Structure prediction request, 528 residues.
Amino acid sequence: MKSKLINRKIVTLLQVQYSNMLEYRVEIALWAISGVIPFFMLNIWTNNNLNESINISDVMLSRYFLCAFFVRQFSVVWVVFSFEEDSLMGKISPYLIQPLNPFFRYFTQHLAEQITRFPFALIIAFFFFIFNPESIWIPNLGILFLSTISTFLSFLIQFLIQSIVACLCFWTEKASSIERLLFIPTLFLSGLLAPVISFPEYVKSWIYYTPFPYLIDFPANVLSGNETNISGGFSMQILWILLLFPVFRKIWSSGTKKYTAMGS
Amino acid sequence: MNPRKYLKVYTKFLHTSLASELEYKTNILIDLITAILSLIGSIFLLSIFFQNDGIIGGWEFEQALIIQSIYTILNGITNTWFNPNLSEIVKHIREGTLDFVLLKPIDSQFYISLKKINPSGFLEIMLGFFLLFFCININQININLGFLALCLITIICSICILYSLWFFISTTTIWFVKTWNATEVLRSFLYIGRFPLNSFSFSLRIFFSVFIPIAFITTIPSEVFLGLSQVWKILLEVIVAGVFLFSSRKFWLFALKFYSSASS
Prediction:
């Protein structure tokens, strides 16, 4: 009975957010375009024959960067910015009264945005294949399934990290600068700009213990068919989620106790 | 146009926005750490690119660092002036407060472009200059007065082009209302300014010198620093900067004709 109620809530939220996102489809198309950095990086890699040093062929490298683009498109998280605005404007108070954790609202918002974004990402991939016809490939169903799951897990990790940062709004009001700080290692270490395999040894020795390579590099490797340790990657992703979730629960409950509504 | 009046108004702007930004002191500290990490990250990325044979697009690592330093300076300028002000245009138009700006007995472009200041960008500018001096040292560049004047001219032109690009995109808000993420697209394109233009393929090079002149912004000043630049390139940059500034001004006045305030 209870699970049915929650299901209905989530479906309704998804529908509301999806129609909301469709209203802003041009905006989302622009977001999709702003994610093209991996293609510029690919251009540098192939134009200077940099892949010689890491033993990846041109074709595999272009597939890797295309997949990195896709994974990034479907794991973009901005919950801290929405939450910060809502909490500064005092919109959190009515959400808190509702018998539903406000983060469900943001969560469905992200999912709805991803659904809206999907066709635009496909169009960009289509153009990519026009310019690089030799890199066309069709991954089999099993790979597609695995990479979808790993992308979703990567999204979950980032969502949890950002939610934890967002909860800091209860104490500092401006938490987005912390998020900008955390974004820097995510940008450089996740494999968005260069595959993790190309990193020097002194970085590779510790990077696999951090969550970063599992955000983009691992799902992109799975999807593009590059060599990677699939079971190890999945277990690390799940491990990080299991580690982060209790932290989020803790910080959320102590944050809501600390929260004082506007005007009080 | 009364320069003394504008100078007086500008000191008032500085005073008020500094006062309000210094309310969030820890934010400034976090932004400093972010700027340092981001510089370390991009040097790290650059070092990966140079792992193969030490030359990219005809640039050595030490020379490419100059591009990095100029990018950091320009990025600091963007974060200090362009980003806080020009993202405000979107807000002005959505909430109809542009009326109040237009009614003031002062040039609207001046007011909109210089109202706010974000002091944490200063730290990034300083960081960029440190790196630049370091590069001048390791590249053994002789400094004389004529050389300095040339460098200053090219950097000022780069700032003008950058400003015009930002201002162009923000001005389109008058028709599209929400262009907050169009500036995000510009931001991601500007990202390639961290690398020498010659490291990209021919078609991208054309795109980034004709349509979005990012090539002029970082590569030409760096060439001047290394004494590699031809006179025609510098002249071209001056002309491009002039054209961009002039047309962004005209475009703003043109766009204002289409502005209908919030309730009409």
Remarks:
- The interface with chain B takes residues 24, 26-27, 30-31, 33-37, 40, 43-44, 46-50, 52-53, 172, 174, 177-178, 180-181, 184-185, 187-188, 193-194, 198-200, 203 of chain A (CB under 8 Å).
- The two ends of chain A are 37 Å apart (CA to CA).
- Residues 24 and 47 of chain A are 37 Å apart (CA to CA).
